[in-house]
C-alpha cells in the first residue's frame, strides 16, 4: 500500500485534492456570505444569463455575466501560463500556489480600493485559476471548484461498486465521495469564518496553500 501511494503524485493524492476542493468551496461560500449571495463559481448560471440577455435583446444585462465568464477564462489562461512557462526543478504548482496566495491577499486588501464589481471579477478569476491547477485524481478527472461533473463521476463509481461488488470499486466510490464532499466542508468553514470575520476571512485559504506548497516541496 505504501509503495502504491508513493507512485501517486502528491497533487493527485486524496488529502491534497480534498484540501483543494475545500478551498474551492470556501471561495464560493465566502462571496455568497460576504457579497450578498454572489456565486463566484456559478459559470453555468452566467452562461444562461448570457443567452437570455441575447434572447431578450437586453444589452444592459450582458455586462455582469460576460465579465464573470471572461474573468474565469483569464484565470484558466493564467494557470496555463504558469504550467507552460515556469521552468526549473521544482513543481510549477509551487509557484502557482504562491501566486494564488497573493491573489487571496489582494482580495482582502481591494475592498475600498476598487469597486465591488471589479473585486468580484478578481475572485471569479481566482476560481478559474484554482480550478485549472489540480484536475486529476487517482479515480480520474476531478474538479475543485464545480460539482456537477464530480457528481456524475460519483454516480458512475456508485454503480460500479453496487454492480461489481469489488473491494477496488467500493474503495474508489468511498474515496471519491470524500473528495466530492470536501467541497461542502470548505463551505461549512467559510460560512462560519465569513460570518465571524467578514472580508478578511478570504485570508484563511492561504493556510491551505501553504500546506500544499510544503507537501509539493517535500516531494520534489
SS content category: mainly alpha
User: Major sheet, described briefly?
Assistant: 2 strands, antiparallel
CATH fold naming: Growth Hormone, Chain: A
E-strand count: 2
How many domains? The number is 1
Nearest-integer average pLDDT: 93
**CATH C-level class:** Mainly Alpha
Number of helices: 9
CATH architecture: Up-down Bundle
| Secondary-structure element pattern, one letter each | HHHHHHEEHHH
What tags apply to this protein structure?
220 residues; Growth Hormone, Chain: A; mainly alpha; globular
What does this structure look like?
The protein has helices at residues 2-7, 14-34, 43-55, 63-85, 92-109, 116-133, 148-164, 167-197, 205-219, and strands at 136-137, 140-141. The protein contains nine helices and two strands, in the order ααααααββααα. It is mainly α and 220 residues long. Helix 5 packs antiparallel against helix 6 (116-133) and helix 5 (92-109) packs antiparallel against helix 9 (205-219). Strand 1 (136-137) and strand 2 (140-141) form a beta hairpin. The longest helix has 31 residues, at 167-197. The protein has one domain: Up-down Bundle (Growth Hormone, Chain: A). The model has no long low-confidence stretch (mean pLDDT 93).
What are the SSEs and their pairings?
Blueprint (H helix, E strand, L loop, with lengths): L1 H6 L6 H21 L8 H13 L7 H23 L6 H18 L6 H18 L2 E2 L2 E2 L6 H17 L2 H31 L7 H15 L1
Antiparallel strand pairs: 1-2
Helix pairs in contact: 2-6, 2-8, 2-9, 3-4, 4-6, 5-6, 5-9, 7-8
Amino acid at each position: 500500500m505504501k509503495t502504491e501511494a508513493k507512485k501517486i503524485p502528491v497533487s493527485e493524492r486524496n488529502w491534497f485534492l480534498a484540501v483543494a476542493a475545500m478551498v474551492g468551496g470556501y471561495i464560493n461560500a465566502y462571496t455568497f456570505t460576504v457579497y450578498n449571495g454572489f456565486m463566484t463559481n456559478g459559470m453555468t448560471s452566467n452562461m444562461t444569463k448570457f443567452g437570455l440577455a441575447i434572447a431578450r435583446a437586453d444589452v444592459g444585462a450582458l455586462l455582469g455575466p460576460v465579465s464573470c465568464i471572461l474573468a474565469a477564462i483569464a484565470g484558466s489562461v493564467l494557470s496555463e501560463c504558469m504550467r507552460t512557462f515556469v521552468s526549473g526543478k521544482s513543481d510549477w504548482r509551487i509557484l502557482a500556489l504562491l501566486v494564488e496566495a497573493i491573489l487571496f491577499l489582494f482580495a482582502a486588501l481591494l475592498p475600498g480600493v476598487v469597486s465591488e464589481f471589479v473585486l468580484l471579477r478578481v475572485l471569479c478569476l481566482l476560481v478559474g485559476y484554482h480550478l485549472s491547477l489540480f484536475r486529476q485524481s487517482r479515480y480520474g478527472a476531478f474538479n475543485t471548484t464545480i460539482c456537477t461533473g464530480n457528481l456524475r463521476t460519483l454516480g458512475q463509481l456508485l454503480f460500479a461498486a453496487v454492480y461489481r461488488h469489488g473491494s477496488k470499486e467500493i474503495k474508489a466510490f468511498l474515496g471519491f465521495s470524500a473528495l466530492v464532499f470536501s467541497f461542502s466542508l470548505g463551505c461549512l468553514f467559510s460560512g462560519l469564518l465569513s460570518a465571524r470575520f467578514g472580508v478578511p476571512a478570504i485570508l484563511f485559504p492561504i493556510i491551505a496553500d501553504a500546506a500544499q506548497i510544503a507537501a509539493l516541496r517535500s516531494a520534489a
